[in-house]
Amino acid sequence: xxxxxxxxxxxxxxxxxxxxxxxxxxxxxxxxxxxxxxxxxxxxxxxxxxxxxxxxxxxxxxxxxxxxxxxxxxxxxxxxxxxxxxxxxxxxxxxxxxxxxxxxxxxxxxxxxxxxxxxxxxxxxxxxxxxxxxxxxxxxxxxxxxxxxxxxxxxxxxxxxxxxxxxxxxxxxxxxxxxxxxxxxxxxxxxxxxxxxxxxxxxxxxxxxxxxxxxxxxxxxxxxxxxxxxxxxxxxxxxxxxxxxxxxxxxxxxxxxxxxxxxxxxxxxxxxxxxxxxxxxxxxxxxxxxx
Length: 291
Description:
The chain has one helix spanning 25-28; strands at residues 39-48, 52-53, 56-57, 64-73, 77-85, 97-109, 112-122, 141-151, 154-161, 169-171, 177-181, 186-197, 200-210, 219-230, 233-242, 257-259, 262-265, 268-271, 275-277, 282-290. It is mostly beta strands.
């Protein structure tokens, strides 16, 4: 899941404008030399020691290779795609890939900016029916609308789930599925990214998830980090923690105690042999580049 503010640091280091297409050479000759194209196409690629989405471990502590591309128009409209490997035990039965598709509109007014859009999270090959009673059929997915605003180095973004939150259905305090929907789950992201100069930067994040109809599903996550740009390569170190209910030895239901695998074969659900608190504190190292 790509956190558009994040979860893990993806900062633009370089940007490559695409060449504007014209129907014929005669029209192309009418464009003044040196005129900037209104189209911008960029890509990003990164290697992370662990993938955390909204503070929660998505790869069972293993590394993640992530990347995607973005198209932006001078008018403020944009679309993009982002991808990462994931663990099936993080709530994606039989799945090991995340694909995010998003689009929206951005506008700046001096030091202020707004960002409005939608994002679709998709896990090809996964089986949502393995998530419990009343779960949706087909691949695990999530659809969210978002609205954000920023001032200088501060930003605030609100996300609203338009369907079941990552195909989850309700769970009671005994860990039993209720079949209730999780539509309307919300996430609030407050972030700061400050440029120290000479390629150095610091960042911080505070987030809050309200997961509807899931016992112990609500939690707060936070992050502090430092980045260093070296010839276009962004090296980052982040400390991430949450108060999510992930204690695998607790008597109460702990929705963020994940297994190392999850599979649904013929209606029979099987889990991996290891469990881990997916919201535990962790330092994440990464190197990424935007081109």
